[in-house]
Write a structure and sequence with these properties.
By secondary structure, this protein is an alpha+beta fold. The protein contains 4 helices and 4 strands, in the order E-H-E-H-E-E-H-H. Strands 2-1-3-4 form a 4-stranded mixed β-sheet. The longest helix is centred in the first third of the chain and has 16 residues, at 30-45. It starts with 6 loop residues before the first strand and ends in a 22-residue tail after the last helix. The mean pLDDT is 88.
């Protein structure tokens, strides 16, 4: 992608308080780091610079898989999407696989941002996250 500016996107992982342990996922584990490295490499080949940050100042209580989705946010300033939770982007998860769902959300924001409802639209897809959807 020499000479062409890459689209900047950010995955933000919020701090989590795991009320129900069955929905625990370790975003600091090697398996997630490996997933992120592969996703980042693939996205870069397609013109997207993917970054990841951990926001330890905001905590989400995890009582369901929907809360786990809410704890991961995607931002793409070039597309007008700022800090939207994965649950808002993908809607209902097909397989309850957080890494698959994050990958789907990243690709959707990167390549079909017009298909994502604005955060101001009334949709009941998540709760307890403060994103406004």
């Amino acid at each position: 992608m020499a000479g062409k500016r890459l689209k900047e996107m950010t995955i933000t992982i919020l701090a989590q308080e795991h009320v129900r342990k069955e929905w625990y996922f370790d975003f600091d584990a090697e398996v997630f780091r490996h997933f992120y490295e592969n996703l980042s490499r693939d996205m870069k080949r397609l013109g997207v610079a993917l970054n990841i940050v951990h926001n330890r100042d905001t905590t989400i209580k995890i009582t369901s898989y929907a809360d786990l989705l809410n704890s991961v946010r995607i931002s793409s300033p070039d597309d007008g999407h700022a800090n939207q939770c994965v649950g808002h982007i993908i809607g209902k998860s097909e397989h309850l696989d957080i890494m698959n769902d994050i990958g789907s959300a990243v690709r959707r924001v990167a390549f079909a941002p017009e298909t994502i409802a604005p955060s101001s639209e009334f949709r009941k897809v998540c709760h307890n996250c403060g994103c406004g959807c």
